[in-house]
Amino acid sequence: MRILCFGDSNTWGYVPGGNGARYPAALRLATRLDVHLSGQATVIEDGLRGRTTNIDDPEVAGRNGAQALPGLLARHAPLDVVVIMLGTNDLKRQFARSADTIAAGVGELLAIVAGTASLPTQTTRTGTAASPMPLVVAPPLLANGAHSGHFDGRQADSLALAPALARLADRHGVRFVDGTKVTTCPNPDGVHLDAASIDRLARDLARAVIATCTSPPTG
Is 100 helix (H, G, I), strand (E, B) or coil? Predict the structure, then answer.
């Protein structure tokens, strides 16, 4: 089984309040997912600080997830599962995006994943051409005063994002994991996961991956 973890700084492994420090590989989400899958999968990490769902950041180039994803899918094919945990950076004040708009951005990513069956190298374990199965993950809730004020006033949309993503996943017939239920972003950072939260989230992702591969959702 091959799994791509596609996300932002929480997939990359940003240490809360660490001034850009990164967790060692053993503590990062992709590695913890591999551990909870008992080494039965190849888990590929692709986290990028500042990555959005489908919008350009005028201050930092190359952060648009929808632009990056097609190349990554081709590079890492064949893939069985694509874990998508994005939306936090879309909540920044400068973008002023609603939860539903952010969920629509994740929907664009789902469409990109669905279009990969035509890749010459994308085949399932049975040798049949097929798209990878997406797994949509709600990112952690923003804490008050999150990350030096970049997210001031965005807590309401942060709270609304998980339900919006759940509705999106239901419409597309894909599995959903509510990361807000098991994660904590300690203050004063308020955006990035502590190590215990990363492990709890990886445990839930492992369960969802196994369920997805043994009993795929229908949509």
Answer: helix
Q: Which residue reads 């952690």 in tokens? A: 140
Domain count, the chain: 1
**Helices 99-114 and 155-172 sit at what angle, rounded to 10 degrees?**
30
DSSP 49-70: TT-BSS--BTTBTT-BHHHHHH
Its pTM surpasses 0.90:
yes
75-110 burial code (b ≥16 CB/10 A, e <16):
ebbbbbbbbbbbbbbbbbeebebebbbbbebbbebb
Extract the tokens encoding 30: 């992709």
Distance CA 110, CA 73 (A): 12
Residue 41 identity: A
What does the alpha-carbon distance between residue 169 and residue 172 come to, in Å, rounded to a whole number?
A: 5
Domain that holds residue 111: 2-214
Burial of 61 (0-12, 13-18, 19+ CB in 10 A): exposed
Bridge partners, 4 (sequence order): 44, 82
Over residues 85-128, the pLDDT tens digits come to 999 999 999 999 999 999 999 999 999 999 986 665 655 555 55
CATH of the domain at 138: 3.40.50.1110
